[in-house]
Amino acid sequence: MEVINAIGRRKAAVARIYLSEGKGKITINKRELENYFPAATLQYVVKQPLDLLGVAGNYDIKVNLDGGGVKGQAEALRLAIARALVKINADSKPALRAKGFLTRDPRVVERKKPGRPKARKRFQFSKR
Question: 20 has which bridge partners?
């Protein structure tokens, strides 16, 4: 099997993955999954699409992760893995879609407006 690549985004995080046949090893920026995401909840989020289809031990995944925070990166990686699994087997798409793993979360931080302290907050109004 050749290498399948996919991309996932969430907030400011971008995950580029290269999925190939293997023993289930996930390498993120040349580090192990357990070292990159020490929190068990984030490891769980990353592995959700693999566990849903029961193929956790079948593929090695090499990941390039950039930008954002840890939660955004984990969810970007989940989306990329789900997209790669659909490229391998299109029959798995309905199951992944039902769980929401193929939906790109469009919510991003609103830009700061000029003359304001934050995006929507205003400085205190003074009548005199």
Answer: 60
Residue 83: burial class (beta carbons within 10 Å; 0-12, 13-18, 19+):
buried
User: How far, in Å, CA of 121 to CA of 110, rounded?
Assistant: 12
Domains of the chain: 4-99 (3.30.230.10)
pTM of the model: 0.90
The DSSP 8-state label assigned to residue 57 in this structure reads: T
Alpha carbon separation from 93 to 30, 37, 47 (Å, rounded):
29, 27, 16
Instruction: Tell me the per-residue pLDDT of 33-88, one tens digit each, with 9 for 90 and over.
Output: 999 999 999 999 999 999 999 998 899 999 999 999 999 999 999 999 999 999 99
Q: Which residues, 6+ apart, have CB-to-CB distance to 61 below 8 Å?
A: 17, 18, 19, 25, 26, 27, 81, 84
What is the distance between the alpha carbons of residues 81 and 59, in angstroms, rounded to a whole number?
Answer: 10
**How is residue 111 annotated by DSSP?**
P
Distance CA 38, CA 30 (A): 15
